[in-house]
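To assess whether ligand presence alters the predicted conformation, the chain was also submitted together with magnesium ion. Input:
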Amino acid sequence: MKMYYDDDVDTEVIADKTIAVIGYGSQGRGQSRNMADSGLNVIVGLREGGSSWQNAIDDGMNVKTIEEAAEAADIIHILLPDETQEKVYNEQIAPYVEAGNTISFSHGYNIHFGLIKPGEDVNIVMFAPKGPGSRVRTTYLEGFGIPGLVAIEQDATGDALQLALGMAKAVGLTRAGVIETTFQEETETDLFGEQAVLCGGLTALIKAGFETLVEAGYQPEIAYFETCHEVKLIVDDIYENGMAGMWHDVSNTAEYGGLTRGGRVITDETKKEMKAILGEIQDGTFKQQFADENATDAANLKEMRVAEEHETIETVGKRLRVACGLQKED
Ligand SMILES: NC(=O)C1=CN([C@@H]2O[C@H](COP(=O)(O)OP(=O)(O)OC[C@H]3O[C@@H](n4cnc5c(N)ncnc54)[C@H](OP(=O)(O)O)[C@@H]3O)[C@@H](O)[C@H]2O)C=CC1
Ligand SMILES: CC[C@](O)(C(C)=O)C(=O)O
Ligand SMILES: [Mg+2]
Ligand SMILES: [Mg+2]
């Protein structure tokens, strides 16, 4: 395994480059602000009239249209939603790409699945933070960062890796460590992680625990604290000191109960299903389903979003978070 930290990265090669960050959402905002604060020459490329345009101006960023930014840049770092990248790249970026430019991503999706096909005379790179965009910014401001991955699909200029690592360093990722990988490995592991564990698996586990307590007659507020709020505190323990550290921190009762019961919740059947989910990612089934979903203007996704917002755990949780000042009222 090849791992890079701050001292391993020479930023000289990137110092005179102009970087167009296309998109100013979760990752675009965090990454472009970190790059600018680290001294890189950053332009933010956006569509006029969208809500990001004014946000980026208010943050003091140098904002241009996507076409203008792509034309002016040596490095075009695409931080748009994955499902929009193919169209925007073909129509608004590709006409301005020149030989020797670098096309950069924070997720391998569009390159790995063959949706974007840049010419052979450009670099194709990726540096992918292993965490949400808001954390990319807050950890950078705290003097740290979140870990990441780096991959080179095409090295036309001979210094593609140094360019990608230079950006990763400016974003703060090499403070925590960046692992070298491939577009395939990043895409497949990232999709699996978010579907089976981090987003899909975790919310399903929390909801099942919450519903079990509420259906048994316990107060929903207590069920929320127990199965949702406290997850962060336990995960923080695991994040800092591993599972052994967490087991040490909790009571012996929790340790014995957890070690004897956890495997009854996440069973061999669960792992079998995880393998099926990974298979659907590897064989392209998920990519096709996501494409079909977007072809119908994400109708199912929008319906599921509304249903999630109306779950009891969400209404109860929001009330408790607003009451203690953790979350602002709408
Ligand atoms: N979210 C995350 O934390 C992570 C994301 N990634 C990857 O980073 C990339 C960006 O993801 P993320 O930050 O979530 O994206 P967002 O959904 O937050 O991106 C929103 C931005 O894209 C712009 N945008 C959306 N649609 C279009 C369009 N059709 N044309 C022009 N601009 C558009 C929006 O502009 P407007 O305001 O005008 O609508 C806004 O600036 C993806 O590849 C993702 O997989 C990787 C790691 C973590
Ligand atoms: C876990 C979800 C993620 O992969 C991420 C924040 O790393 C994403 O696509 O947003
Ligand atoms: Mg991820
Ligand atoms: Mg992801």
